[in-house]
Inverse folding.
């Protein structure tokens, strides 16, 4: 049995027919072609597939697409305000070498969006708490933490 | 498509959900946060024929005070428990322990009811419910009943719920005055299932003697395991290091039944139980002493 | 306009696509009309495949093809020797390819219109196995009477044996005032790159089989694929999309040959994506090694003799075991001068998951032994471990165990001094004074290391590059062609900086054409810490020649250049005598740890790593390599446990094979970048990607000992192992 769902992804409305067992991560990647949402473990451990579900960070591999009917999803592709400008988090990860292979990066960015919204001036400890559900095998995390600090500075600048 | 096919229902009211559960019984599994169920389905360890998604049922996500108790809707997200001011004030043990549950993104989705019904012996929330003497409200189409936390967990991944029932509410009494608390666990990696964990509560009387103690363990048996004898040893006593040591020895050697896993041997789990019992009892006692008026 | 980019921390050239999600990894690729593949794994450590029946699978909805051993033109592959069947089963032309030798051996593939259909059909393949007793212990497997896992490859499961004989160890030990004799064990490690294996194969407009899949050496992948498919190499084209981490684990092939086979036969695009479980059982691991050492020193603190026996578990197939263990042999005496050396190194076939390349490539295991021996000898002699190391540190002209000196300049002393001073080793004071109260104790430790840069043992080490300069009066565009793998280390950024430096243009002007075996020459692999050194020389050469042509008014000015490194020689069979490497890089580390003696938890408070990189082309990228390597090695040392039972993998998910989160890492990593230029290196650079990894397990072991008084010769130093060592649990 299939279900017809309508959801908003990165500000755009989509209507699709899906089998209930289709994971939101697979829906985004295969049905919508939004391959920036990466899959690393299929059971909620690695964090690579983290997206925003109504503005909060969640694992898209642990939610069925059918559950997103009527909801708003943001993926890494929807993070930049327009094609010429990047989100301060994206800019900071670029500038501060907050990535190496980059496979974990989209999930990390999507984890941090609501975190910095709720904690505009976080301590290093708070940043580590926020990042604890995202695995990175390349960087050793320090440059990621530095990039988050830089992003929070940039975002506070904009606020001023 | 990782999971096996299933039939999906998304009721918008509790009545509809109960009706579906009544129709399908054990074939239908309620889907709460899905943070344990969906991984199990992705690996096809779980293959429910029917899912009843509770995420669209309004009014199951509340956290409120009523008289001397907290009432928590079964669909309250773990993230809300973590930051709720009533919980922090009335049951600080719960606030202290919730951050040990997995990671922020998981807690954003995971629910208290989902975790309790999943009844994983390695999970934090069942242990906390026992420690806090919670009552759990189950409903079916024809009515409701209350189940004490200690009667709710009947075995590995098994609860006292009937096939036609859904867990709807958790009632937690406020922690009594002069009560100290502590939760500690040792996980091989932060955020993962702990190799062993302990929740401890110590309530002192007006003279500073121990009125009541609770010690509940995770990953120490087929469900949350309470060390009642060890707790009883402290009752009526002025708590000393020696008494704490003896209670920890009794609890870890006689009262728990850990069986080891890929990351820890049973011997190691017992050792951890002893160490953590000492540490949590000490901290809970100190906190209880501090809170004396 | 001058733009000196060497030595500056330029932003990564590949970052934009990685932060926007535009960058495509192998699993993101699609083509119209694409089919999906699933692989049937053996899931048993040792068996003979008697029969495979595919009729039901073939009749299953959507199934286009099912392939087994008899469909593979040349059913063998392997980076060093072709000892692995592409598909295990009867009917192939080659003998013994019906034998399954580890759980991740591939038995059949299904190709279907959808992944769901391929998956469903996979379950319908019927395989008759005759299970054979698995050989899981290398010590048992190397006995003469052990059943042979590769009957066509000699009369023993010992697939490698290196001997090093220098001086006379008996005479050496006769001079020794202190002798330390110990046995060590180092564990398997899983690469756990975040992106599981995936790929897309199709035929291009010229009829070539194209395989787009992450790897570490385009041209080696091409060679193996072409061999198995019995095609000329030109008929196979390997392209790398973005690579989600590698660390050595993508040197050996995984999905490439079967994908190419299916695309060639079906003339349609075929895609595969491995699950995490498939990735963990399906690719090689860091070798588990047993190391026995007996070392002696005089009371003045001079090393006089070292005798080592090293047994590496090669697992089911050779992969790069011969080279990995060669490297263990070289590094087994540490970066020290020892006049008398006797070392035997064995690689052994077993039915475990194959031992493979992994950051450090045999050196971390050997150095855990060597550096632990140094720390224990220092303790026995009552000497400071730093002073003891400096007394024995290799100097220019000192011979290694293989009888020849390491190429100049040898910089281990500089690294030891840099780590000592940056850590403030001397001021750290006596142990007792540093102790906090209660169950938690603190200690500090020191260790060092060294490792070759580039391929060893007589390989004709080379690397290709091409530079195009476009424009009229001024340079308007620069196109840099290179097939070297960007695995996350920042290679594309570094070569862009190098080309920009030579041509005196902004880094942003460099357009990259990367990793396509059809249009580019052989880059060699992204391994052995070699790309900055090798590709740097190649890019520099190509850019300089293109610039000459540009100055001579050629438009466009195009130059190709192949760099050949100084020659090396293989080890002599009986003595190991050789000039095995053209350069080494050196490292020293100090660490401070806290041990909870009740829970057994080890917390690394800080670790200082002094790494001689020759010249930091991009300092931020260098520091990123140091931090990343230390965290990965810290995982190896204290957390990661690859567990098996009867040859089957128990830790086959990221929830059971645990790699560090941001909370499970040293609290502070201090990177000290030492720059002693290598005369052959581009701008003086040595390679460094593996370097910071090397001493970590030994430095933590030393610090745990300093804290607790106990030496632990086997890691990971998990709470349970630490408590056992402390006698707290049975």
């Amino acid at each position: 049995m299939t279900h017809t769902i309508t959801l908003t992804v990165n500000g755009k409305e989509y209507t699709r027919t899906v089998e209930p067992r289709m994971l939101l991560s697979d829906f985004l990647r295969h049905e919508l072609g939004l391959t920036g949402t990466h899959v690393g473990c299929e059971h909620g451990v690695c964090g690579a597939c983290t997206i925003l579900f109504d503005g909060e960070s969640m694992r898209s591999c642990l939610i069925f697409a059918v559950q997103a009917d009527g909801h708003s999803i943001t993926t890494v592709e929807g993070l930049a305000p327009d094609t010429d400008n990047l989100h301060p988090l994206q800019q900071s990860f670029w500038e501060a070498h907050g990535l190496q292979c980059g496979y974990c990066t989209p999930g990390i960015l999507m984890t941090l969006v609501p975190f910095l919204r709720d904690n505009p001036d976080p301590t290093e400890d708070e940043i580590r708490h926020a990042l604890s559900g995202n695995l990175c095998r390349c960087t050793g995390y320090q440059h990621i933490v530095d990039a988050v600090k830089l992003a929070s500075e940039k975002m506070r600048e904009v606020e001023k | 498509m990782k999971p096996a096919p299933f039939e999906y229902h998304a009721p918008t009211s509790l009545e509809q959900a109960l009706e579906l559960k009544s129709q399908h019984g054990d074939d239908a599994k309620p889907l709460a946060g899905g943070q344990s169920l969906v991984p199990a389905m992705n690996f096809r360890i779980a293959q429910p024929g029917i899912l009843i998604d509770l995420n669209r049922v309004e009014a199951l996500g509340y956290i409120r005070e009523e008289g001397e108790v907290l009432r928590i809707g079964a669909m309250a997200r773990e993230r809300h428990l973590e930051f709720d001011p009533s919980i922090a004030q009335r049951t600080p043990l719960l606030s202290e322990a919730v951050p040990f549950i997995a990671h922020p993104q998981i807690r954003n989705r995971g629910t208290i009811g989902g975790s309790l019904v999943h009844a994983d012996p390695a999970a934090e929330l069942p242990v906390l419910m026992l420690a806090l003497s919670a009552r759990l409200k189950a409903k079916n189409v024809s009515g409701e009943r209350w189940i004490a936390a200690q009667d709710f967990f009947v075995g590995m991944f098994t609860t006292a719920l009937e096939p036609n029932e859904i867990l709807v509410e958790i009632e937690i009494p406020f922690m009594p005055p002069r009560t100290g608390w502590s939760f500690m666990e040792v996980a091989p990696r932060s955020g993962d299932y702990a190799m062993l964990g302990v929740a401890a509560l110590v309530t002192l009387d007006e003279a500073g003697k121990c009125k009541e103690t609770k010690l509940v363990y995770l990953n120490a048996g087929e469900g949350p395991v309470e060390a009642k004898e060890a707790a009883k040893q402290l009752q009526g006593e002025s708590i000393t290091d020696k008494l704490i040591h003896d209670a920890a020895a009794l609890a870890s050697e006689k009262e728990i039944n850990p069986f080891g896993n890929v990351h820890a041997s049973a011997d190691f789990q017992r050792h951890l139980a002893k160490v953590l019992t000492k540490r949590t009892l000490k901290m809970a006692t100190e906190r209880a002493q501090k809170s004396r008026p | 306009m001058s733009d000196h980019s060497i030595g500056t921390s330029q932003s990564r050239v590949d970052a934009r696509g990685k932060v926007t999600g535009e960058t495509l990894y192998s699993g993101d690729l699609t083509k119209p009309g694409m089919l999906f593949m699933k692989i049937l794994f053996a899931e048993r450590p040792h068996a003979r495949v008697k029969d495979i029946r595919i009729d039901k699978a073939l009749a299953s909805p959507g199934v286009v093809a099912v392939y087994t051993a008899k469909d593979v033109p040349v059913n063998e592959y392997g980076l060093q020797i072709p000892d692995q069947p592409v598909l295990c089963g009867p009917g192939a032309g080659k003998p013994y390819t019906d034998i399954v030798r580890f759980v991740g051996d591939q038995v059949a593939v299904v190709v279907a219109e959808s992944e769901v259909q391929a998956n469903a059909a996979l379950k319908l393949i019927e395989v008759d196995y005759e299970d054979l007793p698995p050989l899981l212990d290398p010590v048992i497997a190397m006995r003469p009477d052990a059943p042979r896992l590769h009957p066509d490859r000699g009369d023993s499961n010992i697939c490698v044996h290196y001997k090093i004989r220098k001086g006379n160890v008996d005479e050496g030990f006769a001079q020794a005032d202190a002798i330390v004799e110990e046995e060590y064990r180092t564990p398997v490690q899983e690469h756990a790159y975040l992106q599981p294996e995936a790929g897309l194969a199709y035929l291009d407009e010229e009829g070539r089989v194209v395989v787009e899949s992450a790897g570490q050496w385009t041209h080696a992948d091409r060679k193996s694929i072409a061999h198995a498919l019995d095609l000329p190499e030109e008929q196979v084209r390997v392209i790398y999309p973005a690579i989600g981490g590698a660390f050595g684990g993508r040197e050996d092939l995984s999905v490439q040959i079967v994908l190419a086979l299916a695309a060639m036969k079906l003339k349609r695009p075929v895609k595969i994506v491995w699950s995490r479980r498939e990735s963990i059982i399906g690719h090689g691991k860091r070798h588990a090694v047993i190391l026995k050492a007996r070392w002696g020193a005089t009371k003045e603190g001079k090393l006089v003799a070292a005798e080592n026996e090293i047994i590496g578990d090669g697992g089911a197939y050779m992969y790069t075991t011969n080279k990995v263990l060669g490297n263990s042999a070289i590094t087994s005496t540490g970066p020290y001068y020892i006049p008398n050396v006797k070392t035997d190194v064995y690689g052994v076939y077993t039915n475990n998951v194959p031992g493979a390349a992994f950051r450090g490539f045999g050196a971390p295991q050997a150095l855990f032994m060597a550096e632990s021996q140094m720390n224990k000898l220092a303790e026995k002699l009552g000497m400071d471990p730093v002073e003891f190391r400096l007394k024995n540190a290799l100097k220019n002209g000192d011979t290694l165990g293989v009888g020849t000196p390491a190429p100049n300049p040898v910089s281990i002393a500089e690294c030891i001094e840099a780590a000592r001073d940056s850590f403030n080793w001397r001021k750290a004071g006596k142990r007792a004074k540093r102790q906090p109260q209660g169950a938690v104790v603190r200690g500090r430790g020191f260790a060092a290391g060294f490792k070759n840069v580039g391929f060893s043992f007589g390989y004709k080490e080379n690397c290709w590059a091409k530079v195009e300069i476009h424009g009229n009066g001024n340079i308007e565009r620069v196109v840099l062609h290179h097939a070297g793998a960007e695995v996350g280390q920042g290679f594309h950024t570094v070569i862009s900086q190098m080309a920009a430096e030579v041509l005196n243009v902004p880094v942003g002007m460099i357009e990259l054409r990367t990793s396509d075996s059809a249009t580019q020459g052989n880059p060699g692999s992204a391994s052995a810490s070699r790309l900055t050194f090798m590709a740097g020389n190649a890019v520099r050469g190509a850019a300089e020649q293109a610039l000459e042509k540009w100055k001579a008014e050629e438009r466009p000015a195009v130059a190709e250049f192949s760099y050949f490194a100084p020659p090396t020689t293989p080890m002599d069979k009986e003595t190991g005598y050789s000039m095995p490497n053209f350069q080494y890089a050196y490292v020293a580390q100090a660490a401070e740890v806290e041990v909870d003696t009740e829970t057994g938890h080890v917390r690394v408070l800080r670790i200082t790593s002094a790494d001689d990189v020759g010249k930091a082309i991009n300092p931020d990228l260098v520091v990123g390599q140091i931090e990343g390597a230390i965290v990965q090695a810290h995982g190896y040392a204290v957390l990661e446990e690859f567990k098996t039972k009867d040859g089957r993998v128990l830790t086959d998910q990221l929830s059971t094979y645990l790699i560090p989160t941001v909370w499970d890492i040293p609290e502070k990593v201090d990177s000290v970048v030492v720059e002693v230029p290598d005369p052959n290196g581009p701008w003086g650079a040595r390679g460094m990607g593996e370097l910071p990894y090397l001493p970590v397990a030994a430095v933590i072991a030393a610090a745990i000992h300093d804290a607790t008084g106990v030496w632990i010769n086997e890691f990971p130093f998990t709470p349970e192992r630490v408590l056992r060592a402390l006698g707290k649990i049975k």
Notes: The radius of gyration of chain C is 26 Å. Chain C touches chain B at residues 115-116, 119, 598-599, 601, 639, 641, 643, 650-651, 655-656, 658, 660-661, 663-664, 718-720, 723, 728-730 (CB under 8 Å). The mean pLDDT of chain C is 97. Residues 531-551 of chain C form the longest helix (21 residues).
